[in-house]
Design a protein that fits this description.
The protein is mostly helical and 149 residues long. The protein has one domain. 72% of the residues lie in helices and 0% in strands. The chain contains ten helices and no strands. The longest helix has 17 residues. The protein is globular, with a radius of gyration of 16 Å.
């Protein structure tokens, strides 16, 4: 749970800094690339994951047109989310374990999950926005450094 909160906060921070003009117009290619990895990553869960991800295909393909139009309002919302460091401090103060060791994850497992978790939900999440805006990888690496420090 802690890793997901940190990853989401890192995504929000990066998204808040982007200008709408920086958003790529590659929704179909991004969707196809992520959908193409499902079988290799999710194995026996493939059919269920493909169904979940395909259920949000229409919405994801609208990102090219809708996100630039709505970006100023979205950017304000994104900027209102607390930083990953805020949550690190909070977890430490309450004694919650959130390092990779405490979560019993390897770096590779965390990165695999961070890059592909968005395929398991049919609703749009911050990971979808981050993947579209091409900041998910940087947010995952930032989160990884927080989880290993």
């Amino acid at each position: 749970m802690g890793a997901g909160i940190l990853l989401s906060a890192a995504c929000y921070r990066r998204l808040a800094k982007l200008e709408g003009s920086e958003l790529p117009r590659r929704a179909a290619q991004i969707f196809a690339a992520d959908a193409g990895r499902i079988a290799a990553i999710w194995g026996s869960y493939r059919a269920e994951i493909e169904q979940q991800f395909n259920n949000k295909r229409k919405a994801l393909l609208q990102f090219d047109d809708l996100l630039p139009q709505q970006w100023p309002a979205l950017q304000q919302l994104f900027a209102g989310v607390r930083s990953p460091e805020f949550f690190v401090d909070l977890f430490r103060r309450v004694g919650a374990g959130f390092t990779l060791t405490e979560l019993r994850l390897t770096e590779e497992e965390f990165l695999l999950a961070a890059r592909n978790a968005r395929t398991i939900r049919e609703r749009i999440t911050v990971l979808d926005f981050a993947a579209h805006a091409q900041v998910l990888e940087a947010a995952a690496q930032e989160t990884l450094s927080l989880l290993t420090s």
